[in-house]
Amino acid sequence: MRSLKPLDEETIVKSVSKTGRVLIAHEAPITGGFGGELAAVIAGSEAFDRLDAPIRRLAGLNTPIPYNRNLEAAAVPQTKDIIAAARALAKEGR
After folding, report:
1. Inter-helix orientation angle 34-43/9-19, to 10°
2. Among residues of the chain, what percentage have pLDDT more than 70?
3. What is the reported pTM?
4. Is the CB of residue 56 less than 8 Å from the CB of residue 39?
5. CATH architecture entry for 9-81
6. The Transketolase C-terminal domain covers which part of the protein (predicted)?
7. CA distance 80 to 86
8. What letter does residue 21 receive in the DSSP assignment?
9. pLDDT per residue over 10-37, tens digit each?
10. Measured by CB atoms within 10 angstroms of the end CB, which terminus of the chain is less buried, N or C?
11. E strand or H helix that includes residue 15
């Protein structure tokens, strides 16, 4: 995605319809993060019926993001976490 506002819902729906899977990854805490809004857009669209697996979200912990680099790395998803979640999602569903 290029931007969150304006949100390109048409492109999101086309992508979901094409792949049948969704992994939403962001650094913000999972509660109240923009990923929930993206999931709602997908769930309310025609793409929902084309999903082969549940919508998955990977986000930061429900804590303030620490300033210390090591603690920050533990609080927000890292590249290895996103890769692992994507691989798990690829094996899930139909």
Report:
1. 70
2. 99
3. 0.85
4. no
5. 3-Layer(aba) Sandwich (3.40)
6. 1-82
7. 10
8. -
9. 999 999 999 999 999 999 999 988 999 9
10. C
11. helix 9-19
pLDDT band at 40 (very low <50, low <70, confident <90, very high): very high
The string of DSSP letters for 35-93 reads HHHHHHHHHTSGGGGG-SS--EEEEE-SSPPPSSHHHHHHHS--HHHHHHHHHHHHHS-
Three-state secondary structure call for residue 3: coil
- Residue 11 DSSP code: H
Q: What is the mean pLDDT of the chain?
A: 92
- Rounded CA separation 55/44 (Å): 12
Tokens of 54: 């549940």
